[in-house]
Design brief:
The complex is a heterotrimer. By secondary structure, chain A is mostly helical. Chain A is 57% helix and 11% strand. Chain A has a three-stranded antiparallel β-sheet. Chain B contains 18 helices and 32 strands. Chain B is of the alpha+beta class. In chain B, helix 10 packs parallel to helix 17, helix 14 crosses helix 15 and helix 16 packs across helix 17. By secondary structure, chain C is an alpha+beta fold. Chain C folds into two domains: 76 residues, Roll (Ubiquitin-like (UB roll)); 63 residues, [2Fe-2S]-binding domain (DNA polymerase, domain 1), CATH 1.10.150.120. In chain C, helix 2 packs across helix 5. The chains are: A mainly alpha, B alpha+beta, C alpha+beta. Chains in contact: A-B, B-C. Chains B and C meet through helix 1 and helix 16 of B and helix 2, helix 3 and helix 5 of C. The complex binds FE2/S2 (inorganic) cluster (2 copies) and zinc ion (ZN). One FE2/S2 (inorganic) cluster (FES) binds next to loops of chain C. One FE2/S2 (inorganic) cluster sits at the interface of chains C and B.
Chain lengths: 74, 757, 159
């Protein structure tokens, strides 16, 4: 099973990778999507950056686990 | 590469300011006394964040000997900043009117007959504050509901930066090995031996003269005129000798501003010298950075993709922090070929002393993180640290997509030289390691954030009847030796001796505009302007000489060592000095005058040229105390054509001392915005006894964009040392410290942790 | 505070000065005698920029009151050489590029002069300038300059 980016529809093998992608692209539409989920994009990025442990990615991955479209491997 | 023979360039020449400096004759701003001069002091905020409710200056004014007490209410209330192109980044009043945002922010200033009286008066000024909660770390300051420093900056976000090329997502997909690391880079104080100081002299005809210790008299003139409501050229800034700069002296500072307003009020000269404590706690400093870096590589060590995120502690104002944020992002990828790269940087306002430019300008932080991670990757993959760097090194002609074109690049040769040196060390004793770091830097920035309408560098030259050359430059010598460099470039191009040059600098009234000594720009930019002026003057002289010698039309002439001659037949010629005399007669008695200028056009996003190098540090780590002892520091360095060998050596060794300090001894710990070690006892910079043996190996390349093929040799040298030091510790002990400075305590803790694993 | 009479011989010139007893020696040298070659980088005795020779020994002039040294012989950077002359150490500083901004240089020269007078053969030149901070040079060029003089390379020089 893979996950699809809710913004640009790119496919990723797991939600951590997808979270990395969403943070990585980081353009306004990806940002807006994250912010619409009741968290703050920059705050998450900051948590991710300032302390080891991938906390920012994990938080976003949980959201994506819930809200991103799951697709079958082709 | 063409081999050149020079008569002046790359010869060991005495610094042209040397005699003045070794006999105590050099007059620094700190030494200036004018008739009727008063002394000023500055009252500073004890709160990191607060509203100013009321300031009562009456008691202070009544003190005998006090001439004036001024507050923000006595100013035009204009905000200023050096990023003039962007209004909202001009966010600092210098003398706060309604709100203070860091401990040490100026709130009032006093002029009195002497310093003691002025100091006493400060105690009599009553300021009523409404203290506000502060935000001290980026992580706190960015949270919703955190105290907001500036009305315009939601969540205290000051500036953001994005750099990207290649397909990063794809790069990571292809990677065999991906590594993530977190780093914390600390702050650092510049510690110029001459603290910030200025003498302002305003006269009733409306002219303001300011003597000051600065890296750019032009910037100070323009910024002062703007904030004081004066016409630009009614302000004259003079700075003959500057006792160190390192990035701390090209923005308008509190000494310059406060003594100016006091002098304008009193029409009497006023001098302000910051104390060492003020210098530590209330001037700008190196930007602390929190970095997250993720890199993807092939099994064989080939770089594929890199992603970097940084949050920087901005302090209370923008200052030069916007530039540091951009440069750290660019130099995070340097000096390597990364097929894909993505960077996001955020600068966050905090209630701490503003962070800004300091030698290396964001690159030492980036280089520390990048080079530490590269060694960890190499270790994981079982690749030699030199080999992984060689595999991915930039090369001449490489284009950083959308950012820069690398012309000259001697990185490969530098790696070879360092490799040989490491091998020559043989087997090391226990607890000793050698770490390396590659680096590079720009030779002057090209982005016009200051919005100057002038050429970036200009020079004017006049040749007098006795052959003496008056060279007027706008560049500023703060110790790095640009005066000597410019005289050498001029002498070489004109074919005369350095003693024939009389250099004029450090005065906005007589010197043409140059943006100043920062971003390693003088040798390339001011150097090109000087070379152009000299070349134009030479052309005029050669026209006269050709008329006189009447050689066969196919011959051309040159000047070397004061001898004008046919290139093909050097013995046929004339004395430069004789020809000058006649040429001036031939020009109806006018001296020979020429101008030169330089502005980079279409040179990418960053700089016209880049320096490169590799440094190796050999260090001992004491496993019982955690103490690091530097043994050797060897650097292979490509700064293009060396102009002044003594100067380059000095820059290199000085950079090592400062950058090693950054690596393992210097820090500015704070408690709620208060710097805890604002003195030279508790702030530990390197002393002579702690310096390692240093050795420099020049790799000469020819940079087509630089004068005689030269490029920067000033700041880049600050970049590698912390990383090389950290890697030396890693190879000595197996621990990697990602949190600067690498103190004995951190080393011990990491050793303990490793043991427990 | 009542002023006091102080006698000082500075660079071989004798002075009688009425000064406030609170004044530091560095202040008297710079402000009263116009000898601004002596600098001040901290005023807490930590940087060495204010180093002078007091009866031949290197002393930080920000750490003594002028009244404490009544009757003493002081040498400042201005008194190192006569007229157009330079001492071997000064020449060596030029040859070795042992200064950049120059703000620490006077103090360095004075510490090094005292060191060379006392113990010219010591291996430990570093200790001789340990009390002097230089932010520009990284010290090694200064050490080379001092070592060259200690090794007698400038014996016949100095004007
Ligand atoms: S001024 Fe005397 S030691 Fe610093
Ligand atoms: S030369 Fe600048 S502090 Fe020493
Ligand atoms: Zn997407």
């Amino acid at each position: 099973m893979s996950y699809q980016c809710p913004v640009c529809e790119k496919i990723w093998p797991d939600t951590m990778e997808l979270a990395r992608h969403v943070f990585g692209v980081g353009d306004q539409t990806h940002k807006d999507w994250v912010n619409s989920k009741g968290v703050n994009f920059i705050e998450l990025l900051l948590i991710q950056t300032m302390e080891p442990g991938n906390k920012g990615y994990k938080t976003l991955a949980e959201i994506l686990e819930r809200d991103a479209k799951k697709v079958e491997e082709s | 590469m063409k081999k050149h023979t020079y008569t002046v360039i790359n010869t060991p020449i005495h610094n042209i300011d040397g005699i003045a400096k070794i006999t105590g004759r050099a007059e620094y701003t700190f030494d200036i006394t004018l008739p009727r001069m008063l002394h000023g002091k500055i009252l500073r905020s004890p709160y990191p964040h607060g509203e100013i409710i009321h300031i009562d200056t009456s008691k202070a004014e009544r003190l005998k000997g006090v001439k004036a007490v001024l507050t923000g209410k006595d100013t035009l209330g204009r905000k200023q900043g050096i990023w003039r192109r962007f209004k909202e980044l001009c966010d600092e009043e210098i003398l706060a009117r309604d709100k203070v945002r860091y401990i040490g922010e100026p709130v009032a200033t006093v002029a009195a007959v002497d310093e003691d009286t002025a100091e006493e008066a400060l105690d009599l000024i009553e300021v009523e504050y409404n203290a506000l909660p502060g935000a001290f770390e980026p992580l706190e300051a960015i949270k919703e509901g955190a105290p907001q420093l500036h009305e315009h900056a939601e969540r205290n976000i000051n500036v953001t930066r994005h750099i990207e090329w290649g397909d990063v997502d794809e790069g990571f997909k292809k990677a065999d090995y991906v590594r993530e690391d977190w780093f914390r880079c600390s702050s650092q104080a510049h510690v110029c031996m001459e603290t910030h100081c200025a003498v302002a002299d305003y006269t009733p005809e409306g002219k303001l003269t300011v003597y000051t210790s600065t890296q750019s008299h032009y910037y100070i003139k323009v910024l002062l005129a703007e904030i004081l409501g004066l016409r630009e050229n009614d302000v004259r800034v003079i700075s003959r000798y500057t006792g160190g700069g390192f990035g701390s002296k090209f923005e308008l500072d509190s000494a310059q501003f406060c003594c100016s307003i006091l002098s304008m009020k009193l029409c009497q000269p006023v001098k302000i010298v910051l104390t060492r404590e003020e210098e530590f706690s209330a001037t700008k400093r190196r930007t602390p950075m929190f970095y997250y870096i993720r890199s993807g590589v092939k099994k064989d060590g080939a770089f594929l993709a890199k992603e970097a995120r940084v949050f920087t502690e901005g302090g209370a104002y923008t200052a030069m922090g916007a530039t540091a944020l951009y440069l750290t992002g660019f130099f995070q990828s340097f000096p390597y070929v990364w097929p894909s790269y993505r960077y996001d940087g955020y600068r966050v306002y905090t209630n701490t002393a503003p962070t800004s430019a300091m030698r290396g300008f964001g690159a030492p932080q980036a280089t520390f993180c990048a080079e530490t991670q590269i060694d960890l990757i190499a270790d994981e993959l079982g690749i030699d640290p030199i080999d992984i760097r060689r595999k991915n090194a930039m090369y001449p002609g490489y284009e950083v997509p959308g950012q820069a074109t690398i012309q000259s690049c001697g990185l490969g040769q530098c790696l070879d030289k360092i490799d040989d040196w490491i091998k020559s060390r043989g087997k090391l004793p226990p607890n000793r390691g050698i770490g390396v770091s590659a680096y590079g830097f720009m030779s002057g920035g090209i982005f016009n954030w200051f919005d100057t309408p002038y050429a970036f560098s200009s020079a004017v030259l006049q040749i007098n009847i006795d052959g003496k050359v008056d060279l007027f430059v706008g560049s500023q010598d703060m110790g790095q030796g640009s005066n000597t460099t410019m005289a050498m470039i001029c002498a070489e191009e004109l074919g005369v001796k350095v003693e024939d040059i009389r250099l004029h600098m450090g005065d906005t009234e007589t010197c043409p505009v140059d943006l100043g000594a920062w971003g390693s720009r003088e040798t390339l930019m001011q150097g090109n302007a000087v070379k152009m002026a000299a070349s134009k003057a030479k052309q005029q002289i050669l026209e006269f000489a050709t008329a006189k010698l009447a050689p066969n039309i196919v011959y051309d002439l040159d000047i070397k060592d004061g001898w004008i001659h046919l290139i093909a037949r050097p013995e046929r010629g004339l004395s430069f000095y004789d020809v000058v005399k006649e040429a001036i007669r031939g020009k109806d008695g006018q001296p020979i005058i020429a101008r030169g200028h330089y502005t980079p056009h279409r040179k990418g996003m960053i700089s016209p040229a880049y320096s490169f190098g590799v440094q190796a540090i050999e260090a001992d780590v004491n496993p019982d105390t955690g103490k690091i002892t530097l043994k050797n520091c060897v650097t292979a360095h490509d700064c293009g054509q060396v102009i002044n060998p003594l100067g380059v050596e000095g820059q290199l060794e000085g950079a090592i001392a400062m950058a090693a300090g950054y690596g393992f001894t210097e820090d500015l710990p704070m408690d709620e915005g208060k710097i805890l070690n604002p003195n030279l006892v508790d702030y530990m910079l390197l002393r002579a006894t702690e310096m390692p043996e240093t050795k420099v190996m020049e790799v000469e390349t020819y940079e087509p964009e630089g004068p005689f093929g030269a490029k920067e040799a000033g700041e880049g040298l600050t970049n590698p040392t912390a990383g090389a030091l950290g890697n030396a510790v890693f190879h000595a002990t197996g621990i990697s410290i990602k949190n600067l400075p690498i103190t004995p305590e951190k080393v011990l803790n990491a050793l303990k942790e490793k043991k427990n694993k | 505070m009542k002023k006091k009479l102080v006698h000082l011989t500075v660079n071989e010139e004798y002075h009688e000065l009425y000064i406030s007893p609170r004044k530091l020696l560095v202040e008297i040298l710079r402000d009263e005698l116009d000898l601004t070659g002596t600098k001040r980088g901290c005023s807490t005795g930590s940087c060495g920029a204010c180093t002078i020779l007091l009866d031949g020994a290197a002393v930080k002039s920000c750490s003594v009151l002028a009244v404490q040294v009544d009757g003493a012989k002081v040498t400042t950077v201005e008194g190192l050489a006569d007229g157009a002359g330079l001492t071997p150490l000064q020449l060596s500083f030029l040859d070795h590029g042992a200064f950049q901004c120059g703000f620490c240089t006077s103090g360095m020269l004075m510490s090094a002069t005292a060191f060379l007078n006392e113990d010219p053969v010591s291996e430990d030149i570093k200790k001789g300038i340990q009390g002097n901070i230089c932010r520009c040079t990284g010290y090694n060029s200064i050490l080379r300059a001092i070592r060259a003089v200690a090794e007698g390379k400038y014996e016949d020089e100095g004007r």
